[in-house]
Amino acid sequence: MQFSKVIGQEHIKQSMVEAVANGRISHAQLFLGPEGNGALPLAIAYIQYLFCKNRTATDSCGACPQCNNINKLGHPDLHFVFPLALSKDVEKSTDVFPKWKEAFLQNNYMSLTDWMNYLDAENKQPVIGVGESKDILHQLSMTSYEGSYKVMIVWMAEKMNLVAANKILKILEEPPDKTIFILITESTQLPVTILSRTQITKIPRLTEEEVATALMQRNGQSKEVALSVARSAEGNYRYAQVLLTENEDAVFFSKKFQDWMRICLRMDGEKLSEWIGSADSGISTIGRERQKQFLAYSIQTIRKSLLIGKLAISIDAGEQDFLTKFSPYVPLESGEVIFDELNKAYHAIERNAHPKILFTSLSLRIHDLLAASRKLVTA
């Protein structure tokens, strides 16, 4: 992958070009930033530039054997580690690497949810387990095929369990000659011992203009549609793709949230039970990754309800009427607490909380917070 194929991030690209030119390649690097910013394709473009035999002052040539191999994720000195749905047959990334390569080549900006869906494993927790650390040590102990660098890219490194993380500390601190680690993460939820051994590069969100331009060039969208979607995507190109091609989820989350808040306002036990446990669309049946997406959507919608009428914000026509009526029930104090409760629920889902129990408890808590406001509004 060439730098020219990576959306935006021009300042980061320039820093990478300069690092290669000056021979200042850190052996342990951590790319930190939110989903949809292009950190993974950026890392691959960086390594392709480093390996390229005919690179220019700004990019790899894209045509030499090194570039061709990396572009197909087939270079023998480039290795990948990523989260898995662990089982007796799947313990390390090499067990399913052909699937991961296929998924990435189909969508360079894929999210963790995309990957777990690709594995048909959305109900399982994605993990980088201890078997992975043993494989990392084994692969990096071997001599490079090309006599140059050996590279290990760890995607979604925050999913590495503590045992696996501890096992790679020594090789992170004292790697074999010409070995490069690139850890890609969306959060700093990594052991301090890992963070302290890496050079951290913050990969920022894309700008609205960068996302809009990509949607016009790559997705064939009109300028009007591209700008509208880019505003809603908030710098996340993957989410922009979702908004274009998976509107069904957005509609589902919107209806689900509105139904939920109406139930919480009045606390109808029978409707809450159906909302949580219905076989066809109950929140407990849609899989953990989609539950997390729904909670993230809910957090964003609560934010909009706090800001509507106060600041200029982007709101879909379908949300406008509901939020206008709902916002009086969410004063700032209650909104902040609901924010906190939704965030706690998001992380509880990550830690395998029982969804029926979690959403029942969360609904009762939200009801208590909204009930006081309801009395004021209806007084």
Structure, explained:
With 379 residues, this protein is an alpha/beta fold. It folds into two domains: 3-202, Rossmann fold (3-Layer(aba) Sandwich), CATH 3.40.50.300; 248-378. Helix content is 56%, strand content 7%. It is built from 18 helices and five strands. A five-stranded parallel beta sheet has the order 2-3-4-1-5, sandwiched between helices. Helix 2 packs antiparallel against helix 3, helix 11 (223-233) crosses helix 12 (237-245) and helix 17 (332-350) runs antiparallel to helix 18 (355-378). The longest helix has 24 residues, at 355-378. 35% of the residues are buried. The model has no long low-confidence stretch (mean pLDDT 88).
Write down the overall mean pLDDT.
88
Q: How many separate domains make up the residues?
A: 2
Uncertain stretches:
none
Question: Rg to the nearest angstrom?
Answer: 23 Å
Question: Can you write the helix and strand succession as a string?
Answer: HEHHEHHHEHHEHEHHHHHHHHH
Q: Based on the coordinates given, report the CATH architecture of the largest domain.
A: 3-Layer(aba) Sandwich
CATH topology of the largest domain: Rossmann fold
CATH superfamily annotation of the largest domain: P-loop containing nucleotide triphosphate hydrolases
Oligomer: single chain
Main beta sheet: 5 strands, parallel
Distance between the termini: 62 Å
Bin the strand percentage. Answer: 5-15%
